[in-house]
Amino acid sequence: MLAQALPPVRAAREGVALMDRSHWGRIRVTGNDRRKFLHNMTTADFEKLEVGGGLDAVLVTSTARIIDYVTAYAQPDAILLVTSPERREVIVNWLPRFIFFNDDVRVEDVTDQSAMLSLYGPQSAALLSALGVDVANLAPNASRAATIGGAETMVAAGAGLGLEGYTLVMATDQALAVQQALVERGRPRGLEVMDETAWEPLRVSQGRPRADRELTEQHNPLEAGLWHAVRFDKGCYIGQEVIARLDTYQKIKQRLMGVRLEALVEPGASVRADGEEVGTLTSVSLTENGPFGLAYVRTRAALPGQIVEVGTSHGELVEAPYLTWERTDLPA
Fold first, then answer.
1. What is the pLDDT of residues 208-251, one digit of tens each?
2. Residue 329 has pLDDT above 90, yes or no
3. Is residue 222 within 8 Å of 250, Cβ to Cβ?
4. C-alpha torsion 157→160→162→165, nearest 10
5. Would you tell me which of 11, 86, 235, 267 could form a disulfide with 17, CB atoms 3.0–4.6 Å apart?
6. Taking 70 as the threshold, does the pLDDT of residue 3 lie above it?
7. Do both 22 and 144 map to the same domain?
8. Same domain, yes or no, for 264 and 192?
9. 308 in a domain, yes or no?
10. Final residue in a domain of this structure, among 201, 218, 242
11. Whole-structure pTM over 0.90, yes or no?
12. Confidence check: pLDDT of 1 > 90
């Protein structure tokens, strides 16, 4: 399985890889009050979001437990939310519960009417440029309209793994034309087509949290290393008071950490340091650098270099590249 995944993984890190992510949820929020509504529903600042801009956000419960981690793209007449595949139905049913009589907001699941492709790797921009799409000045999560293979396509900077890449969204019946254009121009550049067997090792090694693994209602965004998706200087939103207290009083009880493992073990295995149980393994994969996992670890033990026992294996705690642990709304 790893041998099959290695060429796309190398391409994603060194060249260019293409993945069909159409199974991820896409929810379209429209109406004049859409920014205010999402501002009040998430950890991010939607009120300052302009057309063509984008951001990462976390939807949480009233006790700041994670519902999902999403990316939002501001279009001229809507905001498009890309959700975890496992959370699509949850969110499309949860958001309307908070739309009140005078709110001009509509929530529509457009997953089946659209398709989504992702490019990964340092050659992604060159490939798009060869197709006439200039992405040189796109800020993270910013998007622009383009035509690829004769199809109208939204092209956004970033592809959800913290690697250089781009997200492309188009109508379902246009997906094949876009994919064929990318493959035709990409093959001479070493393009590899990626599937879940390659994406999962990349996700784990990067430390990107996943629904039902790290993104659960047992954890909050600060424990999950999603500080970049939380604005502490915005007004009230669902879960805001709890998150503010966690930050102010430094009450983060655990942190999501990477674990270099000597051998593969099953998710759910306990993590022990100096003979004491300090955490739980949430994900594991065989990566190009060997077995690697993600684990929630008690803050006092969540130290890079800490030697741990993980189930029947041993390992070392490391920082995961995707995760952030500092506020981004403070002056430099």
1. 999 999 999 999 999 999 999 999 998 899 999 999 999 988 88
2. no
3. no
4. -40
5. 11
6. no
7. yes
8. no
9. yes
10. 201
11. yes
12. no
Domain boundary among 165, 186, 201: 201
pLDDT digits (tens, 9 = 90+) for 176-205: 999 999 999 999 999 999 999 999 999 999
Residues 167 and 259 in one domain: no
> By the 8 A CB rule, do 132 and 182 touch?
no
Alpha carbon distance 15, 12 (integer Å): 6
Average pLDDT rounded to a whole number, residues 96-122: 97
Token pair of 204, please?
């784990």
Q: Is 175 helix (H, G, I), strand (E, B) or coil?
A: helix
Residue 296 has pLDDT above 90, yes or no: yes
pLDDT of amino acid 235: 84
Distance (Å, rounded) from C-alpha 268 to C-alpha 255? 16
pLDDT recorded at residue 250 = 86
d(CA 295, CA 256): 6
What pLDDT score was predicted for residue 2? 53
When divided into structural domains, the chain yields a total of 2
Does 206 reside within a domain? no
CA distance 174 to 152: 8
d(CA 177, CA 146): 14
Cα separation, 44 vs 46, in Å, equals 6
Tokens of 111: 């997953």
CATH number for the domain spanning 130: value is 3.30.1360.120
Distances (CA, A) of 231 to 22, 57, 223, 235, 285: 29, 9, 15, 9, 32
Helix (H) or strand (E) holding 282: strand 276-287
* Alpha carbon 114 to its chain's center: 19
Asked if the model's pLDDT at residue 5 lies above 80, the reply is no
Tokens of 225: 């290393």
The tokens for 327 are 């506020």
264 and 194 in a common domain = no
Extract the tokens encoding 155: 């092209």
- 229: in domain: no
Cα 220 to its chain centre, rounded Å, is: 15
Give dist(CA 306, CA 300) in Å, integer: 11
Contact 257, 317 (CB under 8 A): yes
42/58 Cα distance (integer angstroms)? 6
